[in-house]
Amino acid sequence: MPERLYALHRYRFRSEWRLSAPPTAVYAVLEDAEAYPRWWPQVRRVVPVDERSGTASFRSLLPYVLTVTATAARRDPEAGILEIAMCGDLEGFARWTVGAAGGGTRAVFEQEVEVRKPSMRRLALPGRPFFVVNHSLMMRAGRRGLASWLARE
Question: In whole angstroms, what is the distance from residue 148 CA to residue 132 CA?
Fold first, then answer.
C-alpha cells in the first residue's frame, strides 16, 4: 500500500480535560472501563473478556459503530497512567495520563490508531474531516459526562 494511502487510515488524537475532582477520583473512574457507558454516551457497550481485556463499542454522531478488543497495556496509579492496546475496527493504543492541576485534575487522552473497518477505509479521503469532527464531538461529550459523574460522588 502506498505510504500516502496508508496515512489516510491513521489518526493521532490528543484531548485535555480539566476536572474539579481530585486525580485519584478521576483515575478510579477512568480505570473502571465497564462503567464508561454510564457516563460517556458514545461508549455504547463494554464487555469484559478476562481480567485484562474486553470488547467495547462506540458510536458518535456519524452512523457507524466501531468495535474493538481492548487489552490493558499499562496501569500505573502512581504515575496516573492507563493505557490500552486495541485491535478490531481500530488498531493501535489509547492512553490516559491523570495528574493534579490547579486544585483539580488534568486528564490527557492520547490515541494513535489505524482504521481497520472496511467501510471507513473506503471513505478515507472524503470522510477524514468528518471522522475527525466526530471524534472531537465524542471527546467533548465524554468530558461533560465525566464531570457530571464525578460531581455526583
Answer: 25
* DSSP H helices in 9-123: 23-31, 36-39, 118-122
Task: Please answer whether residues 72 and 86 qualify as being in contact, where contact means their C-beta atoms are separated by less than 8 angstroms.
Answer: no
Each residue's pLDDT expressed in tens, for the chain with a length of 153 residues: 455 555 889 999 999 999 999 999 999 999 999 999 999 999 999 999 999 999 999 999 999 999 999 999 999 999 999 999 999 999 999 999 999 999 999 999 999 999 999 999 999 889 999 999 999 999 999 999 999 999 997
Spatial contact of 42 and 65, defined as CB atoms under 8 Å apart: no
Say how far apart CA 126 and CA 119 lie, in whole Å: 12
